[in-house]
Amino acid sequence: MEMGILQEVADLLRRAQRVAVLTGAGISAESGVPTFRQAQTGLWAQYDPQELATPEAFRRNPRLVWEWYAWRWQLVSQAEPNPGHFALVEMARRLPRLTLITQNVDGLHQRAGSQDAIELHGNLQRVKCYDHAHAVTTWEETAEIPPRCPICGSLLRPDVVWFGENLPLAALDAAFAAARECDLFFSIGTSALVHPAASIPLEALRAQAPVVEINPERTPLTHYVTYFLMGPSGQLLPQLVQLAWGQRL
């Protein structure tokens, strides 16, 4: 990575007043969390994730879907936030305003110390009622899997966005608003393939904010961004923090 480009981005970062950050599976992969599209392992190797993460799959076999998500949560719970997560926390501490938007459902940003993250796809740690979408934190443990909502008796489900479901409108509106209002935008570890999230950096470009992409490989977004920093965010984000504020992480 050419230091001149890194320093230029760090100077922009230090002077910025409103920064928006979009993160995807790549930043979690650096913590050892398998990306959604990576091959299943063990007992789950025979299943296609895109056939389990749907309302139809849950209606057809709710126990199977619940147990698959329990397995995914077990994988996630063994992972730890990496230096990229902690660098974003430090950036938020230093900047007048940083809005963190994430496509990830693993909660690693929050475990690193990020607050008020906009979660476009929900969170594996949360559970809600299938029929009425009540948020549920406790329920009676019985032999039934999935358990039932203590409010209405409906089956419980993970509070994540499945294929065929709309993203939460409030989160999506807040994400696009942050992109329109920022004076610097970062797209970190995203494939730039999944819409509508892939359109959020383009909103920042339309508002004439510089857009920085950090990714180990090029994406459909790369051609449009102001700066492309090729490499892992766990290395590049701490370097930017150090160059901007002299703070080693």
The CATH topology of the largest domain comes to: Rossmann fold
Helices and strands, in order, run as HEHHHHHEHEEEEHEHEEH
CATH homolog superfamily of the largest domain: TPP-binding domain
Q: How much helix is in the residues?
A: 25-40%
Q: What fraction of residues sit in β-strands?
A: 15-25%
Q: Which parts are unreliable, with pLDDT below 50 for 5 consecutive residues or more?
A: none
What is the number of independent domains?
Answer: 2
CATH architecture of the largest domain: 3-Layer(aba) Sandwich
What is the arithmetic mean of pLDDT? 92
Number of helices: 10
**Helices and strands: which structural class?**
alpha/beta
Shape: elongated
- With strands numbered from the N-terminus, the spatial order across the biggest sheet is 3-2-1-7-8-9
Number of strands: 9
- End-to-end Cα distance: 19 Å
Q: What's the CATH C level of the largest domain?
A: Alpha Beta
Give a short synopsis of this structure.
With 249 residues, this protein is of the alpha/beta class. It folds into 2 domains: 3-33 and 81-121 and 167-245, 3-Layer(aba) Sandwich (Rossmann fold), CATH 3.40.50.1220; 34-78 and 123-160, SIR2/SIRT2 'Small Domain' (2-Layer Sandwich), CATH 3.30.1600.10. The protein is built from 10 helices and 9 strands.
